[in-house]
Amino acid sequence: MAMTNRRSSPICSPSNTQIDFYRSEGYLIVPSVFSRTEVDHLGNDVVRICNQRSDLIHANNLRVRFKNNVATQEPVFEVFDPISDLSLVAKEMTEDPRILDVLLGFYGEPACLFKDKLIYKPPGADGAALHQDWIGWPGFPESFLTVLVAIDPFTIDVGATFVYPRLHSEGYLSPKDGSHYQLEHSNMRTKSVPLILEPGDIAVFSCFTPHYSEPNRSRKWRRGYFISYNALSDGGPQFDQHYSEFHDWIRGRYPAERRKELVFE
């Protein structure tokens, strides 16, 4: 199948053509799943959280992450992970039938929420290194996939997400030892494809699909809601279990004397 940034028809239940494309390429774009009004509502709510819960935005909170500004190298706040427990609007989106029906078509069974994060990607924020989302932890679901809901336009200049098509079929490309690994672009055998999205579009990509993003060199924000799921038969609901394991893993990367300062708020 030709390698293109394929945009599919705006329906909830995916067609056989869409399912075949996803299984072949490791990603799929579905435009106009949510209206501009709906994504503006989400966008306003995640800005509200930043303003009203600025107390959460600090280096010791396991919920938040920072990126360096590419011009100044100063850290800038970028991620709430998770955000669905802070925003009812976000929580409702994780349960929206328009997403779940797409995943039902892929899985052939219901999807379970695994994790979620809101990446704000402010102007100047650095990009994300090339990686796969799967990680070699015991029981980590191989059906794990991510639904990206665009709040702002995803274009090249704001640091769109790029995927390497078809390489998901090769499975995990790093040692299965529980560590997180970056990949080398020189080892990728296909050409990367940018996920160009308008507000309300979604992109779905497999946990084994190598992907990365460029720095946001524009003056615009590139907010995206990244919602991850697993198939019901692949571990069932495990949102709380995942974050418990995830936080233990983060703590383990710090010196012992630093770990006691880390909290989840």
Walk me through the structure.
- The longest helix has 17 residues, at 36-52.
- The protein has six helices and ten strands.
- The model is unreliable at 1-11 (pLDDT under 50).
- The chain has a single domain (16-256), classed as Jelly Rolls, CATH 2.60.120.620.
- A hairpin with a 6-residue loop joins β2 (64-68) and β3 (75-80).
- The protein is globular, with a radius of gyration of 18 Å.
- The protein has 265 residues and is of the alpha+beta class.
Summarize the structure.
The protein has 265 residues and is α+β, with helices and mostly antiparallel strands.
Characteristic terms for this protein:
24% helix; 7-stranded antiparallel sheet; 6 helices; disordered N terminus; alpha+beta; Jelly Rolls
Tell me the β content: 15-25%
Tally of separate helices: 6
CATH architecture: Sandwich
Walk across the major sheet and give the strand order: 1-8-5-10-4-3-2
**Which structural class do you get from the secondary structure elements?**
alpha+beta
Q: Which radius of gyration do the C-alpha atoms yield?
A: 18 Å
Write the layout of secondary structure elements.
Blueprint: H1 16-25, E1 27-30, H2 36-52, E2 64-68, E3 75-80, H3 88-94, H4 97-107, E4 111-119, E5 145-150, E6 161-163, E7 193-194, E8 202-206, E9 211-213, E10 224-231, H5 239-252, H6 256-259
Antiparallel strand pairs: 1-8, 2-3, 3-4, 4-10, 5-8, 5-10, 6-7, 6-9
